[in-house]
Specification:
This protein is an alpha/beta fold and about 475 residues long. The protein has helices at about 5-15, 45, 55-65, 95-105, 125-150, 160-170, 185-190, 190-200, 220-230, 240-245, 250-265, 270-300, 315-325, 350-355, 400-405, 415-425, 430-435, 455-460; strands at about 175-180, 205-210, 235-240, 310-315, 335-340, 375-380, 380-385. A hairpin with a 2-residue loop joins strand 6 (about 375-380) and strand 7 (about 380-385). Helix 16 packs across helix 18 (about 455-460). The longest helix has about 30 residues, at about 270-300. One of its GO terms (molecular function) is hydrolase activity. Pfam families: MMR_HSR1 (PF01926).
Length: about 475
Amino acid sequence: MNKKGKSNLGRSLIKDRFASGSNKKYVANKSMLHTTEIQDGYDWGRLNLQSVTEESSFQEFLSTAELAGTEFLAEKLNIKFVNPLSNVGLLSKEESEKVQKDHDKFKEFLKIPRRPAWTTETSPQELDQNEKEHFLEWRRGLAMLQEDHGILLTPYEKNLEFWRQLWRVVERSDVVVQIVDARNPLLFRCEDLEKYVKEVSKTKLNLILINKADFLTEKQRQAWADYFTSIQVKVVFFSAVLETDKNPIEVEKECNLNINDAEEIKTSKDSTKMENIKEEIDNLELNVENTANKLDEILSKIGVKDVNSSTLLTREELIQFFKTIHSGPKVTEGITTIGLVGYPNVGKSSTINALMTEKKVSVSATPGKTKHFQTLYLDKDILLCDCPGLVMPSFVFTKAEMIINGILPIDQMRDHVPPVNLVANLIPRHVIEDKYGIMLPKPMEGEDPDRCPFAEEVLNAYG
């Protein structure tokens, strides 16, 4: 075919496809071509159809608006200018009081899931179904608390298996110990767990172990001890890090020195002196015990059951305390079972390792390292029962509070200003300056001279 033929053919194809006349196709009898006779490959493709079976809420909104023939214009006038030299992201005094009232009002709704009642006749399938139904009902209750009343809760454990481990630990234990972080004990304490322990058995005891207590001064420990005494909750102070960091060589040297001293005393002619010292010590111990018993009697008469001590206990003192705390009937005859419960990262595994003097539980900074409860014999009459770290629901005022307490991972933080403002409000100005070696700008003339520094001031000074 010559070039002219090719040109005519091309024009004829273009004219046939893009003719200015009607695009309607007809069959031999001049009737319209039925849709079932349209070519799938070309004609359907020109319609640009797309099957939609699922839409996001925003896409559904736009689709409905299009069907209704409604148009929307974006408004750019509702702009709020935020002064960087202000407590951005923090609640005012009035707002804090209102939120606190809501917390007090809905406190009874902040519960942990209970294990449903069961008997020996209950089949495993029935028990499993009952547990799932109760757990779902519990989750719905917390969701309603957040949605209907605008209450801000911490993230909490939504895996039923973790709660099943807690139920078993509570049932097996004589004393349930909540391990909390000394820097914010109330956030990590679950009051409803204490109620649940008493619901399971009246003979079970509750105890708060404030770990990382080396961060606190003697005055601060005394303040917390007095507070928990006022609400009749038993509390002890401990530092797993201090006990773990003790140099094994130094401990061994101390033991060797004590052994050598004892041998010298034994071989000494002055054995009478040693016997006199021993007798004096026995008398002192007896006097202390009698005084303690009298003090307990007096306190019980005036309505105070236990007075908490602010002493930072050593490993040996804590073990001795565990041996004497429970005097009632035991779950396992002759053995006091201590159940250890707490949030991830409060130092629960480190506490166990410090008590065992050798590593028995793996330690990790990642929440959920312990998957199932473990039992470890601390002594012939003391059994430790370690529960997986559980994040229990708790009230908070702002998300900034969750970030600085380590509940929300810092890599999920979207706005750094509120957490920095909160830290600047909690920590005195001079402490921040000493810690980072910076000079914060003084409040301007006309401002409160005692006001806390703002986030921008802290970050600019540090930068």
